[in-house]
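the two lines:
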Amino acid sequence: MITFERVSKFYPHGVNALKDVSVSIEAGEFVSIVGQSGTGKTTFAKLIIAEEHVSEGRVIIGDWDITNIPMADVPLLRRQIGVVFQDFKLLPQKTLFENVAFALEVSGALPSKIQQIVPQVFKIVGLEQKMHRFPREVSGGEQQRTVIARALVHRPKILLADEPTGNLDAINANEIIELLLKINSFGTTVVLVTHNREIVNSLRKRVITLDRGHLVSDQATGKYRL
Amino acid sequence: MILLQTTRAFRFALQNFRRNLWLSIMTIIIVAVAVFSVSLVAAINVLGHRALATVEQRVDVTLELVPDISDADTTAFIERLQEQPLVASVVYQSKVDALETFKQNHAGDPNIQNLLAELTDNPLPASVTLKAKNIANYDSILAFVDLDENAKLVADSKRDFKDSQLVIEKLTTLTNRVRDIGLLVSSVFAFLSLIVVFNTIRIAIYTHREEIGIMRLVGASNAFIRSPFIIESILYSIIGAGIAITVIVLIWQSAAPALHAFFFKDTTVNLGTVLQQNLWSIVGWQFLGALLLSTLSSTIATRRYLKV
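prediction for all of em together
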C-alpha cells in the first residue's frame, strides 16, 4: 500500500530530515510512526501526501509511483488519503456539517451525494447529534472527530493521522485512538504519527521508530523504544 | 460538473468580496477611475477628429475664370483638375449659374435687385471650386493651378485656406497634446489599478489562507482553488467598468449641447448619435480592457502567493 524505497529528504542549510529510509506498509495495517521531535516523522507524513518531494529514493502509494508526481495529479492523490492533523484545521465560521461538506464541495461532489455521505461519516465518528453545531460549541475531542469525519468523506484507502491527540487530554485522546482502530477494522490502512508513549504501548500494533532521520526499528507488535 | 464547480467558485468569490467589502469597494473605484480616464482620452480623440473633419470639410478654393474663356478651354481645365490625384472634387459654376445664385442670395435686398435689373451684361465670372482630399494638399494643387497653361485661364483665386490651415494645425496640436497628457494619466491609473487589484487579491489570499490550506488537504484541484480569486477580480472589472460607463454616458448627455454649440455649430454632426453609434463598441472595449487588466493582475497574484 505504502512503499518507501531508500528515501532521503534534505532541506537547505544541511538539514537531513530522512536518510535512506526503506519501509513497506501493507493494506489494512495500523502502523505507528514514532520518534522524538525533529526526527523526520512529519516529513514522512508529508511525503505520503506529496506535500514534500523526496531528494533521493522512491515513494509508491498502491501501484502509483508518486516520487515525481505532477502538480495536477496531487489533488487526485489527496482524495485517496484522509489526513488528520494535530491543529484540527476546522473553519470556525462553518458548522461541523459544513466543514465536512466543504471537503466534498471543493472536490466537485453533487449536493445529493453530500447530503448522503456527510451524515454517514458523522455517524461513524459518533457526532450525528452535534453535526450542526459550530466548532467553538464542541470539545477538542469532538473537533478532532469532525476532522476524522472530514478525512473519511472520500472513502480513503489510507488514513494518515499526524499527532491527532497532541491537543487532547487523555480521555479524549483514547477516544480518538478507539475511533482510528474502528476505522482500521473497516479495512482502512491507518498511519499514526505520534510521540505519545502511552498510546503506542497500549495499541500493540506495528511500530516504526525514527531517530534523527534514520529508521532504527520496525516491530510488528512494538513498543515506544526511545 | 463544470457548472457545479463554477457555481461554487462564484459563491466563494462573492464570499471573498463581502468579507473584504471596503477593500473591494476601493478596488472597484480605482478600476472605475482607470476606465473613466481611458474613456475620457478616447472621447477627446473622437471629438477632436470630428471637429477637425468638420473644419476640413468647410475648406475649399474657388478659382474665378477669365471672362473670355472658351467652353473647350473650360472643359479641358476642369478635366486636368479632376485628373489631379490630390483633388477630391471639382465643381464648375457657369456665369449664368453664378448670376442666378447671386440673385437668390440677395432676393431680399431691393437695392441689389434694382441694380441687377439695370445691368445688360452679366458681370459675374464663371468659377471652379476645388476641394482637396487633405488640407495639406492645397499648396500642391495651387502650384499646379499656377502653371502657365492653367494660370492664363484663372482671373483670380480665393485662397483663404491658409487661415483654415492655421486653425486646423492649432486644433491638431491641441488635440494631440490633450491626447498625450490623457494617455499618460490613463497609463498611470491603469498601472495603479493593476497594483490595487493585485494587492486586493493578495490580501484575499492571505485572509483565506486557512481555507486554502484545507482545500489543498482535501484534494481540491489547483484550478478550483485559484478560480474564486480570478472571478473576484473579474467582478471588480465588471462593476468598475459599469460605473465608469454610466458616469461617461451621463456626462456625455449633459455636456453634449454645450460641446455641440462650441465645436459643431451649423453642422450635421449629432453628438447623441455619435454616442449611440459607438456605445456598444465603447462598452465592449472598456469591459475587455478592465477584464484583461484584472485577470492579468489576479493571475500574477495567485501565481505569486497561491502555491498550490
